[in-house]
């Protein structure tokens, strides 16, 4: 049997050789087709791929046997195309195979030289030839027309749309006929258009013929969308064509849709089609000059505002008349809303009825761009704007869930109850989620939380609302220590240290154990040299210090090699004062005002400088501060900077912010997080450079005081040079962006201006605020000399002047481009 197989194979191989099919080619022909090689009467130098196709079809085999005029390469390309055999059988009926192959080959070669190929591959040539041949059979052969067809196919592959074309299947040839329309050659997505706009090709060509290319590009997408949404497509096409017969047709249509992002409303088209008016303003014809729509559309021009026009047109379709009127009366607000605003999000429109909005609501919406926050609000529950605004401001899911659980209450009662509630997120560490929601809901259904706190007489010094709420929700945790609880820190300690409390009789015992077990606390106590009496008297303060992570900050700073011996001493003195709640005593020493700045300061100005001003704006609290935690974390919050206690490149400058003449401006968000900060310095300045007459040594009596030690006598100094007292606002660091960041910077300027006025000082603002200066202010940008004050820390960092300043550079004037307040009385 084996001998028979070998003989058969050798006979087939000999026969193939006689047919001019080499051994290598023969091996690639399918074994089941090799016995058909004997049918070949007209040997040709065809590839094995071609023979594998030809030998499957008697029609193709007859074509090869009977034809000596067709170029072998043409046959190779035709039968090797990635198409079904029936299409190939049809293609060989063309009498123009050689001519078509020449045109295809030449066109593709020219295309290769003048176009970027993208994903087009040479093997695509096979498919192009077959499709063009099939097209010519139905439409005749004209070389110029074939060139257009070839270019259109190759462009699709070059623009990575070849797969879309291939997916047309048997409709590919119809597509090649469609591409002969001149307008079709202007389309980027011609395949998509071909699939979606069957029956509309002649209509689009008529629009193309009646306009120039640029106008057609603007009208094309709005036209396509109008046809897609129309319930009377044929009637709409007739109306468009009738409009084109009118003298002002193109102007009208371009007014309605000046860019491809606009839309046509069917009612607009109908009105224009039926008008005999010679009025050139399409909006006047359609809506009337006294209408809200007319005021809106004639005020919002340009392609970049297409989304604003489209939104109003959608409002017209949905009959949002009250909202349209609101917009027409407040165009300055509407026209500056960005296209990513939630107003244009379908989810927002499902939640809220636009007709219920007023101008204040519109101004609030104009600032809302958080799509992620919008997605957290349930779409199936219609809301008033006050309810929506409340939910939009909530950052945690549990706070929103409580709101939805109270839907049986009236809107006002529900909002009051929820607004009085602090964020519940921190309670999730102690309470089960579902139980917490139900517990809070049950409480507020009885009466608001504020009333619970009042009725239960929960008045604890410095306690936050969330701490006091904890006492109400879990009274059993606090019963044992009610007589000892004095501060919010005590509540926090009980919440977090339940295991320790089980084995102690008093809160003081628990705190002592807590402090003893913490390595960072023990390091700090030993390094500062705190006595047992000090620890006992300030136990709650030390616990709070530990729980806020400040003992770790202290130890990390202490181990920082950048800090000198004197700076480590400063760290001990400042921290000791903080633990004893006496930081203010060592920060605001009367003599140090004059010593640091080198200028005599009035008692009134000193008193004002010690006072911390604050106000609220857009949910943010803007305040000046000098507290220990904000100051020590100035390089960490709201963003990391070179002053960071944890390895910042200029961390040795950090403690200078505890100098008498330095404070910090911060912006806190509704959750009390620092979102922005800027250094605020009380110093002096001059229009001209001043060579200081004082000896610097007199000023180096500066130093932080020990709260347990006696004050040293400090030599008074005199100055013979007249200089201005200056309040210097340095650059702003913020985690915010866009309009929120700018709003905060402007509020910093506002607070600094008020502060400077009360101090009797001249306000100086860093150049970084150049886009935030009020246009009607008396702040003028100029070259100005600012004094680098003396520091108790040895090194300080000036964001908007020199950067790091050392003892060798302090006590001098430095010129800077800044904004300076003029005409201060």
Description:
This protein is α+β, with helices and mostly antiparallel strands and 825 residues long. Helix content is 51%, strand content 9%. It has a five-stranded mixed barrel. The protein has a two-stranded antiparallel sheet with strand order 8-9. A hairpin with a 2-residue loop joins strand 1 and strand 2 (620-625). The longest helix is centred in the C-terminal third of the chain and has 22 residues, at 738-759.
Secondary-structure map with pairings?
Blueprint: H1 2-18, H2 23-27, H3 48-54, H4 58-66, H5 72-79, H6 85-91, H7 97-114, H8 124-139, H9 143-158, H10 162-166, H11 172-178, H12 190-196, H13 201-210, H14 213-229, H15 233-243, H16 249-256, H17 266-274, H18 282-287, H19 292-299, H20 306-317, H21 321-329, H22 331-334, H23 346-351, H24 359-365, H25 371-375, H26 385-393, H27 397-405, H28 411-420, H29 433-446, H30 449-455, H31 465-473, H32 488-496, H33 498-501, H34 507-517, H35 519-528, H36 532-537, H37 539-547, H38 550-558, H39 565-579, H40 583-587, H41 590-597, H42 603-610, E1 614-617, E2 620-625, H43 628-632, E3 662-668, E4 674-686, H44 696-699, E5 724-734, H45 738-759, E6 762-766, E7 779-788, E8 796-798, E9 803-805, E10 812-821
Parallel strand pairs: 5-6
Antiparallel strand pairs: 1-2, 2-3, 3-4, 4-5, 4-7, 6-10, 7-10, 8-9
């Amino acid at each position: 049997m084996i001998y028979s197989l070998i003989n058969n194979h050798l006979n087939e191989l000999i026969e193939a050789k006689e047919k001019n099919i080499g051994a290598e080619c023969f091996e690639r022909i399918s074994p089941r087709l090799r016995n058909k090689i004997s049918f070949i009467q007209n040997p040709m130098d065809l590839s094995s791929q071609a023979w594998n196709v030809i030998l499957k079809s008697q029609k193709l085999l007859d074509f090869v046997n009977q034809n000596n005029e067709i170029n072998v390469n043409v046959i190779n390309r035709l039968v090797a195309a990635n198409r079904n055999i029936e299409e190939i059988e049809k293609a060989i009926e063309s009498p123009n195979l050689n001519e078509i192959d020449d045109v295809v080959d030449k066109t593709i070669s020219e295309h290769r030289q003048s176009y970027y190929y993208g994903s087009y591959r040479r093997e695509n040539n096979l498919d192009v030839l077959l499709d063009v041949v099939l097209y010519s059979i139905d439409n005749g052969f004209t070389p110029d027309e074939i060139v257009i067809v070839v270019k259109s196919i190759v462009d699709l592959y070059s623009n990575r749309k070849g797969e879309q074309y291939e997916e047309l299947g048997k409709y590919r040839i119809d597509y090649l006929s469609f591409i002969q329309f001149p307008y079709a050659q202007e389309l980027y997505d011609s395949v998509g258009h071909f699939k979606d706009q069957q029956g509309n090709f002649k209509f689009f060509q008529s629009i193309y013929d009646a306009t120039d290319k640029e106008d057609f590009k603007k009208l094309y997408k709005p036209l396509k969308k109008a046809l897609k949404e129309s319930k009377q497509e044929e009637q709409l096409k007739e109306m468009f064509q009738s409009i084109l017969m009118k003298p002002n047709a193109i102007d009208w249509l371009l007014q309605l849709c000046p860019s491809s992002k606009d839309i046509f409303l069917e009612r607009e088209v109908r009105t224009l089609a039926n008008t005999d008016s010679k009025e050139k303003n399409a909006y006047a014809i359609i809506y009337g000059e006294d209408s809200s729509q007319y005021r809106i559309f004639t005020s919002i021009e340009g392609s970049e505002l297409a989304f604003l026009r489209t939104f109003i047109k959608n409002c017209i379709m949905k009959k949002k008349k009250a909202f349209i009127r609101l917009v027409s009366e407040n165009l300055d607000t509407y026209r500056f809303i960005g296209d990513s605003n939630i107003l244009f999000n379908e989810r927002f429109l499902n939640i809220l009825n636009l007709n219920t909005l007023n101008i204040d609501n519109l101004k609030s919406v104009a600032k809302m761009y958080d799509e992620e926050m919008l997605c957290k609000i349930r779409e199936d529950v219609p809301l008033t704007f006050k309810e929506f605004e409340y939910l939009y401001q909530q950052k945690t899911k549990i706070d929103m869930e409580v709101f939805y659980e109270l839907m049986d209450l009236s809107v006002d009662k529900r909002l009051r109850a929820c607004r009085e509630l602090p964020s519940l997120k921190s309670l999730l560490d102690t309470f089960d989620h579902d139980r917490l929601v139900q517990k809070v809901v049950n409480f507020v259904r009885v009466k608001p939380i504020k009333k619970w706190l009042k009725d239960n007489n929960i008045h604890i010094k410095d306690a936050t609302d969330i701490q006091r709420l904890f006492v109400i929700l879990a009274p059993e945790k606090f019963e044992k220590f009610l007589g000892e609880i004095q501060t919010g820190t005590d509540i926090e300690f009980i919440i977090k240290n339940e295991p320790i409390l089980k084995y102690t009789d008093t809160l003081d015992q628990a705190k002592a154990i807590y402090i003893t077990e913490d390595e960072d606390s023990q390091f700090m106590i030993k390094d500062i040299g705190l006595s047992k009496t000090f620890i006992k008297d300030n136990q709650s303060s030390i616990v709070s210090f530990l729980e806020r992570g400040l003992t770790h900050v202290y130890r990390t700073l202490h181990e920082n090699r950048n800090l000198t011996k004197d700076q480590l001493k400063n760290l001990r003195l400042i921290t000791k004062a903080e633990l004893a709640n006496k930081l203010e005593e060592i920060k605001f020493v009367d003599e140090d005002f004059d010593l640091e700045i080198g200028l005599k300061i009035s008692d009134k100005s000193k008193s004002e400088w010690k006072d911390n001003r604050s106000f609220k704006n857009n949910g943010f609290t803007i305040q000046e501060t000098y507290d220990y935690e904000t100051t020590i974390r100035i390089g960490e919050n709201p963003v990391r900077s070179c002053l960071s206690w944890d390895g910042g490149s200029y961390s040795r400058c950090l403690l200078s912010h505890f100098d008498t003449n330095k404070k910090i401006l911060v912006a806190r968000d509704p959750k009390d997080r620092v979102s922005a900060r800027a250094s605020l310095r009380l110093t002096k300045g001059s229009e001209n450079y001043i060579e200081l007459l004082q000896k610097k040594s007199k000023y180096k009596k500066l130093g932080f005081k020990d709260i347990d030690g006696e004050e040293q006598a400090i030599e008074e100094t005199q100055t013979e040079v007249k200089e201005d007292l200056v309040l210097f606002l340095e650059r702003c660091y913020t985690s915010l962006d866009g309009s929120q960041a700018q709003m905060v910077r402007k509020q910093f300027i506002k607070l600094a201006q008020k502060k400077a006025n009360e101090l009797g000082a001249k306000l100086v603002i860093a150049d970084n605020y150049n886009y935030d200066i009020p246009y009607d202010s008396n702040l003028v940008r100029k070259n100005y000399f600012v004094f680098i004050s003396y520091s108790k820390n040895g090194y300080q960092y000036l964001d908007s002047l020199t950067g790091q300043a050392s003892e060798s550079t302090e006590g001098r004037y430095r010129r800077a481009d800044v904004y300076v307040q003029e005409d201060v009385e």
